[in-house]
Amino acid sequence: MFEHMEKYAGDPIFRLNEAFHRDAHPQKVNLTVGLYYDNEGHIPVLSSVKTAEQRRAVEPAPRPYLPMEGLASYRDAVQKLVFGPDYPALRDKRIATIQSVGGTGALKVGADFLHLAYPDSEIWISDPAWDNHHSIFQGAGVRTHTYSYYDPETRSLRFDQMMSELQALPRKSFVLLHACCHNPTGVDPSPEQWLQLIPVLAQRELIAFVDMAYQGFGTGLDEDAFAVRAMADAGLTFVVANSFSKNLSFYGERCGGLSVMCASAEEADGVLGQLKAAVRRNYSSPPAHGGQITSDVLNDADLHAAWLREVAEMRRRIAFVRKEAHGQLKTKLPGYDSSYFVKQHGMFTYTGLSSQQLQILREKHGVYIIESGRISVPGLNTRNIGYFTDAMADVLGA
Ligand code: PLP
After folding, report:
1. What is the pTM of this model?
2. Which of 153, 209, 271, 376 could make an SS bond with 96 (beta carbons 3.0 to 4.6 A apart)?
């Protein structure tokens, strides 16, 4: 009955990750999957999360379904985290927010919602992109296109080109923007560039879909939300997906949020109803355990303070590794410009290594980097960074 169906090739990143685990190389280094590892190479269990879970475990509670839109305390906390605790639109109830199944679930529900609202609109996604952006929007029936983003020559943003392409889009087009720590390049617009870009969104009546999967991993939780808050200040109607996978180290618990900034409380109420309808059609209601723990961490003053320190620590470690890689490469490869390690932000850095160089890194040195040349920086630590920079020097110095 299903013989005619095309075989799913699998996700190339997960495939490479599996190859890494099969490799017997004694000094192998995994820089493939976007997971934050601590300096010991472990995915951390945050102490704020541990305490919240211990408290909840004292008296296990029944597990009814959550409402389609998720826990009210969770949704409130998402709004404060994304828009800032004192933002007037929160008081005015102009933001429709749901608890989502990770950032991916937020993108899917948001894509379904936008397609329902504007069935003829199409979406423009950065080039290069997180591949799943194309898949998710296509899966929701939205045609996808790309806008210029990264310049491999200068290893920086093609800002002028991006601006002129956005200026030429049809009205009511959707534009996928990364709030911070762009995946895969690590290159973000500066605050000044965001302030030039936002009026274009407004003038062209473009609908921004902001993906904020790495809030707190760039410059700070508030700083990383600069673009979102500037769009809100400019009075735009737009959509934001946020994720707790990275900043709460909560990958498998599938916790995120979807917020739609509206013009009025009535509009937000109607939008919330449509988001709930999209949730009902997709998965009915979000996960209770992760939702409750996330809400506890964000809403309890002590746990929240501990979490802020833990996010800052993860961010500091990423910055340290970036600086260290840059410093070591400067010594080992004096002619090579490795400043991109410190100019790019967040989990990812784009090396520009060729397929052949990546193959040598993998086969000779056991250093695994995905085909685009994107490194997941937290795979590096004080024990393997010297080995990694030696391997880079071997490949690039050849
Ligand atoms: N958006 C981007 C840019 C990502 O890199 C990721 C995860 O890697 C996501 C969204 C999805 O996040 P989640 O794992 O919470 O579904």
Report:
1. 0.96
2. 271
* Ligand 1 atom having least distance to the Cα of 133: 1
Which of 35, 36, 183 for mutating ligand 1's site (highest number of atoms within 8 Å of CB)? Answer: 183
> Which protein residue has the closest C-alpha to ligand 1 atom 8?
34
Pick the CATH number of 12-45+305-397 from 3.90.1150.10, 3.20.20.10, 3.40.50.2300, 3.30.160.390: 3.90.1150.10
Residue 133, C-beta contacts closer than 8 angstroms, at least 6 positions apart = 107, 125, 144, 176, 211
Is the ipTM higher than 0.85? The answer is yes
Amino acid, res. 232: A
Angle made by CA atoms 235, 239, 243, in degrees to the nearest 5: 130
Active site residue 211: yes
Q: Tell me whether residue 307 is one of the annotated catalytic residues.
A: no
Domain 63-299 has CATH 3.40.50.1370: no
364 catalytically annotated: no
246, 276, 296, 307: the active-site residue: 246
Q: How do residues 19-58 score in pLDDT, each as one tens digit?
A: 999 999 999 999 998 999 999 999 999 999 999 999 999 9
Residue partners of 342: CB distance under 8 A and separation at least 6: 322, 323, 326
Q: How far away, in angstroms, is 213 Cα from ligand 1 center?
A: 5
